[in-house]
Target: alpha-1,2-Mannosidase
Amino acid sequence: MYAPSRKDFILLTLSDEDSGGYNNGKQWRRQSCWRKWKQLSRLQRSLILFFFAMLLICGIVMYPKVTWPWSGRNIYIHITVMLAEPTYCLFKKKKKNSSCDSQCMMGHFLKDRETNVFCTSQSPLRYWANLQPALKRGPAPKVCMWSVSGGLVDWPEAVKEAFRHAWKGYREFAWGHDELKPISKSYGEWFGLGLTLIDALDTMWIMGLKEEFEEARKWVATELSFFRNVDVNLFETTIRILGGLLSTYHLTGDSLFLDKAKDIGSRLMPAFSTPSKIPYSDVNIGKGVAHPPRWTSDSTVAEVASIQLEFRELSRLTQDPQYQKAVDEVMKIVHRLDGKHDGLVPLFINTNSGQFTHRGVFTLGARADSYYEYLLKQWIQGGKKEKELLEDYLQAVEGVKKNLLRKTLSHGLTFVGELSHGRFNPKMDHLVCFLPGTLALGAYNGLPPNHMELATQLMETCYQMYKQMETGLSPEIAHFNLQPHSVRNVEVKSADRHNLLRPETVESLFYMYRFTGDQRYRDWGWEIFQSFNKHTRVPSGGYTSIGNVRDPTNPSPRDKMESFFLAETLKYLYLLFSDDQELISLDKYVFNTEAHPLPIWPSDP
Model:
């Protein structure tokens, strides 16, 4: 046997002397890649090409979604007419999920059978300014905003979703109680009367939230009782509970709410049993006993002069004059009192003497604000017949112009300050932002046109109280800088930086848009609404007031959702964005100071 033969090999590498060793040049690499590409089958090459083509298309589609949040501009769809030069995105009617959506997102042009469709990334203000010369004159178009996710956002529907979210928190954690504490998932009591639920009834009806409304109605029918040994505030109970029940009765025609309104109205009447006929601030609705606060015998002017719309309407519905007689007497007393300053009233009135106290301080903010609002609204409610109310209102507006109105020197913002014993204070409560809407309402009802001019100026200021804050939300109180070269117009003290989800600015935006059709008021409202969603929305349900509007990273949530957020703030935002001008027509209704619409009385035949 022979052992197998062994074969050895020697590997020789032969190269050109001039090659310089290993060749990693671009030309050689291209030849190598091309050789490998040619070695692939036709199917493999097709799949690779398809993959890269899809990657390119996805990149083009995703590019607007990535860049929009930082672009500072929004895509809008407008309902308007055809132009010769295609520059805008136009629809005859709103379309969801239409082929134009993706075309607009990609910045392409599309023409369909119904209308030409063009695209724009301009804001509505710039859009309308550019478009107006071509259209001459006409109403501003309805807009819907593109969301970052690429779909259309229906603004009224977005507000309804916010309401549902707030209601979800209240229903789960505070059902039947006065207020939701959304962060701790608990509740707070003030009067123990289901304040948030009653305050929100007409909002649900107006928004068409019938399922939520029916559940709340069932609670009113089976659980709500005013036979309780509890002290309630006359003013707050009147505007929130009595006003809410009366409004819901008028909207629904359901006698349940009128019966409840009669019950609470009669239980509040002991407040008027005072030596002066100026009502006490507090009433025990179970015992039928009223009293002033423990620390004073005074009531605030706003408290006693902002309950008239509700009690007057209760008298009209029940044909019982006692309610209207009591509140009309209060207005007559205030009308003839000494101590006013050019129609402006002090903050307090004594329930024993019926005289103003703490004289010399005049403001349109807390403790006085709704007195001026109700002068005008009572005049409108009663068919514009009560001349004393109109005289007091007109005189007060002139007093504001003469004594409280100022303008910042650096940016020209018009604001309403305060007067304290002859000294002007450039301090303006957020509560004062009711004034633009009230002035506009008066001008709409035939009062001097310069009221509307002032309303426009003040509306800008109220918007800036939001715009100049880091969170986009207004502080409770602002101070205006009167120095000529100041960088910031609006300054905020540390104790005033909270935001309570108040409605006054969006309330005035609603009036201004209804009367002018100016799209900027909707845009401002949308900005404010987005800021509420960003900084006050609680994931588990509800919205919370915050403690610091200057700190967007830590706004210091306060764990409280006021009932007026559902009753007023979201209601006014919904009406602002609604295209239905007859939805709570201002020719038929007047809003109380808690945003509950009450009917304007029909004229006598």
